[in-house]
Amino acid sequence: MKRGARQTTGKKRGTTKEAPGQEAGDCQGAGECPSGARGQRAHVAAVADREQTLRAEKVRRVKAQLAQGTYRVEVREVAKAIVRHEVVRLLSEEKKPKGRGTQRRQRSSDTMHKRAQIQLTPEEQLALLRQSRTMALCTIGKDGYPHVVAMAFMVKDGCIYMTSYRKAQKVVNIRRNPKVAVMVETGEQYHELKGLMIRGRCELIEEPDEVWQIMREIRAFQGGDVDAVDPARAQKRAALKIIPEKIASWDHSKLGPGVY
Question: What φ, ψ does residue 237 adopt, rounded to 5°?
């Protein structure tokens, strides 16, 4: 190279000298995005604050509409709402009838209280049985239907006794299924009703002498002539001994008129 030839500046062609305080990648001109990494972080924070404000405003608006009963949920809105769980919770509270569980428990408590009030005492149960002359006996037939008949009876040692022909349908039912129920009841109007229902198992007694003795005791319990019971009738009959397992009783008069 000849002396005096043009020397290079030491910089690559096409490069420009940056203005003082300006970094590469900064936005040019006023009103554009902030300059540098610090400005970008400030911009992101401002956007996040604006989104949070919009979310809070939407929650406030939904709550106000729910309170007024004018809000209707759309799938598109719920999908968009970041506060979806809050909306669902508020809707569930709006749709849920207030106090339903409390009212149900209160009704159940009132029913149990009335049931306890109308129960017969053991003395009252025995008095009701002694003044009754017939009792409804319910057995279960082969087809599963109840079979109910009126029977003379007596009470002895906490059990109910009655007799019937061995070939009678009720006896056939008891041989198949010993679970039975009996009931006595008095009263004309609903608020006068008084009754006793006994559920238990029935044992069949078929020895003639024992059956004849039970027939005599039933006649005495009913206030009839014991000597009129013919021993020959016991040959074809069976005695039914009902052992109580569950007892239900009621006396509506204990609550007075107008309650039922």
Answer: -115, 165
**Which pLDDT tens digit goes with each residue over 238-259?**
999 999 999 999 999 888 666 6
CB contact burial 93-129 (16+ within 10 A = b; e otherwise): eeeeeeeeeeeeeeeeeeeeebeeebebeeeebeebb
- On whether the CB atoms of residues 186 and 132 are closer than 8 A, the answer is yes
CA dihedral 98, 101, 107, 113 (to 10 degrees): -130
Strands 237-251 and 194-205: antiparallel
Reading phi first (left if > 0) and then psi (alpha if -120 to 50, else beta), residue 36 is in left
Task: Give pLDDT tens digits for 99-127.
Answer: 565 556 666 666 566 778 899 999 999 99
Q: Residue 38 and residue 71: Cα distance in Å, rounded? A: 43
Q: Give pTM, 2 decimals.
A: 0.58
Q: Which domains does the chain have, with CATH numbers?
A: 36-95 (no CATH), 116-254 (2.30.110.10)
Long-range contacts of range 64-68, CB-CB < 8 Å, 24 or more positions apart? 66/90, 66/91, 66/94
Count how many residues are written for the chain: 260
